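Progress against Task 2.4 (sequence-to-structure conversion) is shown through the following example record, which the project officer requested during the mid-term review.
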Amino acid sequence: MVDLTNCPWGGLEPAKLWFCEAPLCSIVHRPSETYSSFAFVIAGLYIYRKADKSKNIHYLIFTIMAIFIGLTSAAMHATSSRIGEIMDVSSMFGIVNFCIVIGLKRKYPSLSGLSQLGLFILFTIISSISLTINNEAAGSAMFGSLILIGVITEYLMFKKAKVKPNYWLLVKSIGLVVIGWGIWWLDILKIVCNPNNHIITGHAIWHAFCAVGIVYLWRFFDQFEYAPSPFIGKLNCKNCVH
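Structure tokens generated for the chain above:
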């Protein structure tokens, strides 16, 4: 691990995860990983611009979460700090947990909006606790587990639903994340790695894939109406399969 004590942000506790890109002793430690994080901000702004704002308000949740992921990711990679890392991973947990909860609402229609909000907070707190474990792989394992839970939940609904939304949007989203996650591992394990490359890195590609994945994820959930709360939904889509 490079000693960044005398560099900007050197007084902060260092992050546990160090990816391929070697840090620079500057205000932005890892330029490629930092600036590519703004792909999430672009995704959030795209969702806001393209959303049918008269249909529901959950587009606003996706917009805020995508932008928040981008900003926290940029903070993590720019400072190489533990606090930035916790904020970054927690924001990723947040968007997955949100999707799980609104998915559960479709499976259990009697679930109240307040109960869904409580579940969202509970899931996010529990998943974020994994970041306190002194193991670099704990957060990654939790992230993968949350995605698996979400996939299983949607699969069970797909099997039983008489009216099916366009699941290809969800498949595209998950596919992009899975491919990007594979590149994430190649980068962090230094299998495909050039530490002095500060333009396009494997982790930067992971950011790009996930940002596009969030757009497809929003398009999938945009098939449903959520009113008056984003945690209350019913199926109303043009691409449903009867």
